[in-house]
Amino acid sequence: EPEVVEQQQAPRREPELPNGMEKVQVREVERRSKLNVEELSKIEDEDVLDKMLDRTTDFEERRLIRNAMRELRQRKRDQREKERDQRLQEARSQSVTGRAGHATETTTTQSTQSADGSARSTVTKTERLVQSSDGTKTSRTTTMESSYVKRSDSGNSTFVQTKSSYSSSSKKTGSIFDREDESASRQSSLAALERRQAEKKKELMKAQSLPKTSTSQARKAMMEKLQKEGGSSNPAASQTAVQRSSSFGVPNANSIKQMLLDWCRAKTRGYEHVDIQNFSSSWSDGMAFCALVHNFFPDAFDYSKLTPQNRRQNFEVAFSSAEKHADCPQLLDVEDMVRMREPDWKCVYTYIQEFYRCLVQKGLVKTKKS
Question: Polar residues compositional bias: what residue ranges (predicted)?
């Protein structure tokens, strides 16, 4: 019996067999992976790789296919960049060939020397005329170089050199503009530029020479002028009138916008989910419209049933209630308001202005005039 037990236990020792099988499978996977890498590198169609990626479920194969897709995209990008560089080089070469054509260059030099020979000035003028090969365009470039050399008694010399260049625009040969005197037109444009600069300098000097007056001095002068014209014997009354006229002026667009925003904020204070800070993002969920309409028409709808998540319903309830109870036209479209994450502030501002005007007409809002 002990011998039989040993014979039965011997075949049960199988821990090495699965390990050996795993090693064989790993070698087969590595061999198949190497083959797949070579095959995948030959595929030039990204759709084929995409279909292979959808079919396979093996992690190693999916990794190899993704690497092949990245390499394929990189090769295509490199190819496109290479083709683009070639096209740019061809276009540049063609443009240079078309512009080159025939070129002529003339240089004139004029030198003057002082009577004692201690100073000498030289002016060099270079004109380059380039004509296209087909003879339809010409380009002229003029370069002026001037140098001034002065020698002192001690033997030292002072050298000053300046350089300036300008180009004329290309023209078609044979047009009436070629017969114009370019030098005369150029001199006239330079003279006009110098004249404008002189006028600006004169205005600046005039402004700097004017006496500076403070705000109090200007106010005092205005009060004296009003007293002389009106003949008022009470300076306090005239001063009060001047101060009132300067402080209660016509409000500008920014002040009207801010006053309307403050009015909306005051009328919706205490409403849940409403915080009006501007005419754009503060109205994006429709709760501000509903709160503003509900403040004047509380029986139109139940505000407690509204939520910021249901934006379409909020816009529909607010716009329809304002049109029904305040006769305010629906200047804003519900679909546009739902589609935009932040509405255009000009559209919202215009609608709120119209709603305010309708409330004034119905006598629900009191103004200074009324």
Answer: 1-10, 115-146, 230-248
